[in-house]
Amino acid sequence: VDALGGEMAKNIDKTYIQMKMLNTGKGPAVRALRAQADKELYSKEMRKTVENQENLTLRQTMIDEILVENGKVVGVRTATHQE
């Protein structure tokens, strides 16, 4: 959720249809804000954000395998055997 400096939250702010505060009858520790976004507009805004992000290459393909070394994800292997 915090990837790219919180862009998911920023895009919800741009594209929400409605927002509702949950658990208003309870204490502040359990209250939460729920937002419903315009699905198409959110997708367009997020794509624009990702496409304009520095040092990030956007690719669309099928992933066959997630590559893990020492318990950390280090890459992926695609259906065409690219890494």
TrEMBL record:
* SUPFAM superfamilies the UniProt entry points to: FAD/NAD(P)-binding domain
GO terms assigned for molecular function: flavin adenine dinucleotide binding
Q: Report the record's Gene Ontology biological process terms.
A: tRNA methylation; tRNA wobble uridine modification
Query: What UniProt keywords are attached to this protein's entry?
Result: FAD, Flavoprotein, NAD, tRNA processing
The MnmG N-terminal domain is annotated at: 1-82
Q: Which Gene3D superfamilies match?
A: FAD/NAD(P)-binding domain
The lineage's top-level taxon is Bacteria
Q: Which Pfam families match?
A: GIDA
Question: Which GO CC terms are listed, alphabetically?
Answer: cytosol
> Which cofactors are reported in the record for this sequence?
FAD
- Subunit structure and binding partners: Homodimer. Heterotetramer of two MnmE and two MnmG subunits.
PANTHER family linked = GLUCOSE INHIBITED DIVISION PROTEIN A, PROTEIN MTO1 HOMOLOG, MITOCHONDRIAL
- What protein does this entry describe? FAD-dependent oxidoreductase
Please report the organism this UniProt entry assigns to the protein.
Faecalibacillus faecis
